[in-house]
Amino acid sequence: MELVDHAQGLLPTLAANVTDTISNGTDPDSSFSSPHGVMEGLLLFFGAQFPLMAIFVLFHDKFGSYLGIDLTIPFILCGFIWVTIKIMSYLYEAVEDLVKTHLMAKVSIDNSDALFLQLTEWLAWQPIMANSRSVTVETPYDRDWDEESALEAPHPEIAPDGAGITLNFSMQEARIPSRYTPAIGSTQNFWHNGTFFRLIRSQNTVGLRNKEIIVISCFGWSPEPVKKLLQHAKEEFYAKNDAKTTISRPKMYESKKFRWERVAVRLVRPLKTVVLDDSYKVRVLSDMHEYLHAATPRWYANRGIPLRRGYLFYGPPGTGKTSLSFALAGAFGLAIYIISLQDPKLTEEDLSFLFSKLPRRCIILLEDIDTAGLTRRPDSSSLEDGKPKDSEDSDKDGDVDIPPSKEGAAVADLAKALKKEFSKSADVSTPGKKKEGITLSGLLNAIDGVSSHEGRVLIMTTNKPDALDEALIRPGRVDLKIPFTNATRDQAKELFVRMYELDTKAAGLLPSSPPSSPPPSITAGSEILPANNTPQPLTIDELSHIAAEFSSKIPDNQIISSAEIQGFLLMRKKNPREAVEQVGEWVESLIKQKESRSKVSDGK
Ligand SMILES: Nc1ncnc2c1ncn2[C@@H]1O[C@H](COP(=O)(O)OP(=O)(O)OP(=O)(O)O)[C@@H](O)[C@H]1O
């Protein structure tokens, strides 16, 4: 600061000195003072107002006399070029503004819309991004397995202790190709299908939230070419994700608001890989098909019925409830939106908002609904159909079972009264503070509230259907209930065939013929076995024969889940014969483990 003040004080003094010197024409050192009076004229004209001009003239005189040349012309030329550039850029901006305002059409997309992601993803595949000078780089973590390039694949390495060949993934993350999209604050000009487009990506802060905006413009009065471009980007995005299921979950942003975020893209799970009684599969498939049909919305509207469909998949853990949900999504090409009601930060407001932001047709999956801790609000003892009503009829409270005996009833009433008092005082002690977590009425409001999009399929899964509130699973909210059971013998056989049939098919179904180039088989120790150790693939007859043998050793009283059988087979995925030999022993130890209620077995 001191330096600046000093310089500011010095400049007028210098200017005054130089003005004096020049006006007196008595500079003894100046053998080459500015000729023709041009510089003097400039100085006389600007000197007093612009002290820098005086310094400039002094420099001109001293440097010119030192070099022995006249610097007036180059200086004037430079000034002229500078002024010309300024005028040109001013004119350019004025013309650009004029063109942008009157001759270009534009479309804005903000990052809360799904199109933003589709567009940026599409841009990342375009060659323009490879040559762009201003880009944002990100590491894509939600890629599907089949996007993994050969470059990223781990290379087998000899283990340091010489024990065998292992796959080494240490460099894998480093090899993931980055994704480049236009940088914030940048402008990209590009041509697409013979049309010129200008893209500007910017960011502004709205409240606590950073909002990103992409504006695409094109020449002409109509934004039609931009709309076509966006449609093209959207279609390419979906074409790339065809045969894949996208999975989204709520994500909390800086503004403490939840929004949907795509968390994964998975290859479609074929329906046939889910082992379930065919009649159930057909029922749910045909019901969904009819519901998703283009004519259905009109049919529902004509009858004043809300266009919704809900399914409840219930049964023990690991019996295929989630698997069927994903397979259905794949079969109909729908995206899956998963909500965990256990999330303590998720409020009812968030839930309603998330439901309102669902695409027209999608699957929304509420997993393990019985563990979601859904409560009826204490003062919702007056809930009817799960929603608040005006009456004070507290006996219908869903969360207190009133014992039949008189004393029991009295105790229950007391407990209820205490609970009510407690919740009242809690509410009073924290005025204005919202109760966190989702209540039953909050969930019901989200499911059939006005803001929730019609057309979606709601799937709820549970291990304990009896623990669910009736309001949640009444018709209109749950239209189809599909039971899942532990594996029957038939299902065990099907699981066995599914596990090994592809190897048999790959081997050409020839009896006992080895595949031309057997894939490397990996044992539990991740050691790649030499090719001659690879078990011989089964012929189709052998497969069916040993599958029957396998299933005969599975108890028929359905105490083993499909997930457990799958886990056992996975440990012997290249060796079906071994699986058949060991299944009896495995079943025995598993039953013992279940009887002792231990959570772990001996690892067989
Ligand atoms: N019926 C089945 N058909 C094919 N695979 C199954 C089946 N049941 C379970 N699995 C396999 O077991 C694993 C767990 O299955 P899944 O998650 O679908 O079970 P779930 O019933 O949803 O379990 P949970 O109730 O614990 O959520 C998956 O890898 C799946 O492939």
Secondary structure layout:
Layout: H1 2-24, H2 38-46, H3 51-67, H4 72-102, E1 104-110, H5 114-125, H6 127-131, E2 135-138, E3 155-158, E4 165-168, H7 172-175, E5 179-182, E6 187-192, E7 195-206, E8 209-219, H8 224-240, E9 244-252, E10 258-267, H9 278-292, H10 296-302, E11 309-314, H11 321-332, E12 336-339, H12 348-356, E13 363-366, E14 383-384, E15 387-388, H13 406-429, H14 440-448, E16 457-462, E17 480-483, H15 489-506, H16 540-552, H17 562-570, H18 576-595
Parallel strand pairs: 9-12, 11-16, 11-17, 12-13, 13-16
Antiparallel strand pairs: 1-8, 2-5, 3-4, 6-7, 7-8, 9-10, 14-15
Helix pairs in contact: 1-3, 2-3, 5-8, 12-14, 15-16, 15-17, 16-18
This protein binds adenosine-5'-triphosphate (ATP).
Adenosine-5'-triphosphate binds next to helix 11 and helix 17.
InterPro entries: AAA+_ATPase (IPR003593), AAA_lid_BCS1 (IPR057495), ATPase_AAA_core (IPR003959), ATPase_AAA_CS (IPR003960), BCS1_N (IPR014851), Mitochondrial_chaperone_BCS1 (IPR050747), P-loop_NTPase (IPR027417)
Subcellular location: Mitochondrion inner membrane
Organism: Bombardia bombarda
